[in-house]
Amino acid sequence: MIDLEDGKFKITVSIILLKENKLLLQLRDNTGYLDGFYDLGVSGHVNSNENFKKAAVREASEELGLKISPEKLVYVTLIQNIRDNYIYIYFLYNISKNEEINIKNNEPNQIKDLLWVKPSSLPENSLPHNIIALKNYESNILYDIIYDEIGDD
């Protein structure tokens, strides 16, 4: 978290895992935040004294058992959620056709399902900031701001 005069910013990292034009999603469950919505394949908070890429690599290992080199992560975008004081940082990991990966759900108490989908066929219950991040990726937008989240008017 980043301390501000009037509060704190929470920082999360996410990895857009792409393989053969499909991306991996996880169905959130028992997390206390937007359960029942699809998140990107890897997503989690940054710990103190941890850089963003290392946090993403740690989350990939914790959640899916993936061993990713930080050098293989490509920065995509940053989205600042003004109302909730969140900063979402996104990386891309493009899994090559010949690359053997073994993805397993290491957190079945928080990840109800894993799903590979085409970016054009996202489930309706996908997290809105992730939809924005994927559009930013397609349009090469490196920074964006949102003012609300699900349930706001």
UniProtKB/TrEMBL annotation:
In its UniProt record, a GO molecular function of this protein is: hydrolase activity
KW Hydrolase (keyword) present: yes
Which UniProt keyword terms apply here? Hydrolase
* Gene3D superfamilies xref list: Nucleoside Triphosphate Pyrophosphohydrolase
Every Nudix hydrolase domain range: 8-147
Write down the required cofactor(s): Mg(2+)
SUPFAM superfamilies in the cross-refs: Nudix (SSF55811)
Q: Name one Pfam family in it.
A: NUDIX
Q: Which PANTHER family match?
A: GDP-MANNOSE MANNOSYL HYDROLASE, MUTT_NUDIX FAMILY PROTEIN
Q: What is this protein called?
A: NUDIX hydrolase
State the organism of origin. Streptococcus pantholopis
